[in-house]
Amino acid sequence: MSINKIAQQFLAGQIPQSDAETKVYDQSVLEHEGTKLIMIRQGLNRLLLVIGNGSLYDELEGESFEGYKLCPTNHHNRLVLNRCFPHTAPQAFGKQVATFGLGDRLGLASPGHIKTIRGRDVKPILAQQSIRELNLTGRDYREVLDAACYAVIQEGYTGGFGADGDHLKLEEDIQMSLDLGFTMLTLDCSDHIRNDVDNMNEQELAAAYEELPEKVRRRYEEKFLNQSFQVGEYAFTYDKHSLMKNVLIYSKAIDYMLYIYERYIKNAERAVDFEISIDETMTPTAPEAHYLVAKELQDNQVDIFSMAPRFCGEFQKGIDYIGDLEQFERELAMHAAIADHFGYKLSIHSGSDKFSVFPIIARYTKGRFHVKTAGTNWLEAVRTVAKVNPDLYRRMHQYALDHFEEAKAYYHVTTDLSKIKPLSEVSDAELPQYMDEDNARQLIHITYGILLQAKDENGNSLFKDEFYQTLIAQEEAYEASLASHIGRHLELLGK
Ligand SMILES: [Zn+2]
Q1: Which of 1, 227, 291, 355 is most buried when burial is the number of CB atoms within 10 A of its CB?
Q2: Domains of the chain (ranges plus CATH)?
Q3: Percent over 70 (pLDDT), the chain
Q4: Does the annotation count 198 as an active-site position?
Q5: Is 166 a catalytic residue?
Q6: How many Å lie between the centroid of ligand 1 and the Cα of residue 469?
Q7: Residue 321 in contact with residue 215, Cβ under 8 Å?
């Protein structure tokens, strides 16, 4: 039996050799008070080979053999390992170091992400999922965090990583993510931000403003009305019109931020990187709106890690920035100055593939940023499948085309299906090139939930199982795709 041979090598003090049946992750060796372990994979199944004695040996659950134990990479064992090896648990990073959100959508990308980020001046947020992504992938926060921690063990990575409860809106989700040990929390305030204000005429604006409690109006008027605030070379002033507008749009959201901070972040009894997201709104965040929100937070002693405004132009999923680069640069300079002034980091969401704006972000944030990418590791997974399993790719591509309209309900994209080359005209060798074309990228990007959930008439998964099997069996190919694609992001960001 292959495993026995491998165990004997490990018992003899060697790093075992992979063979046809068993892959050995040779960087994964860990030692703690007489217990030694290494991660191996048999087929699709990752296991821990554990030898020695001591409390760790006993605490890990698994099957015992002569002189060794084989333990599943499950939730229980992850928690045990986190306790013995603190670097395998997520951590908060504070505001002085650049961070990069990687959001491993499938639970397979983190080893490649770690290989990409290693040695660079930026810390990875390996676990980062929104509730919407969980619903569409059928995963939960426990699994998401388990996958990230085991990836860290597999790669022998000791540089530290974070876990982001991304775009959380509800208190129950905030509580759940904190209970599970998430170290970053992105509060999505969009339900408390008014989207109807920009379309109001002067009269409607004044009338809506009068409806606000007098206490609220007075609080903002005393502080901001006809006042000017200097931030570096920029001055932000609020006349009656602009103040009414900003208070109408943001005051409820600000109250929600204060409440969540008081109730959850301050009471967490550990460091939590608290991000405020005001990006999921209809209109871009004007720099003076960003300033007003930030000033209110500071005056109420709310200590934030980062703020994500909505920038001008479009940050669509999986493709480069669309919009006026000069305007973007002008406004980004102001947003970055505001973040700097208050001491937190500017956060850029939907950062996948925004190659044309990365150098601008690097310059104005002076390299102190948080950038989130999400679905791009899914697209690299699909690219890998296109390379190594063309038949599966073809079936997925066709299914995505057939279900594109359903997926569009969730995402704002400008995909033109007529520009995607028909499958019948593309050879197997050319299939990966679909992932270099914006329309095909967006098609595949937004249909991930539909593809992963697709079932045949007997209730069996149409693609998911084969997709996972392919990627696990071809993990080096997937890692290479990620290293090249995510690496390009980091290089343009100056990291
Ligand atoms: Zn966002």
Answers
A1: 291
A2: 2-84 (no CATH), 88-376 (3.20.20.70), 387-491 (no CATH)
A3: 100
A4: no
A5: yes
A6: 31
A7: no
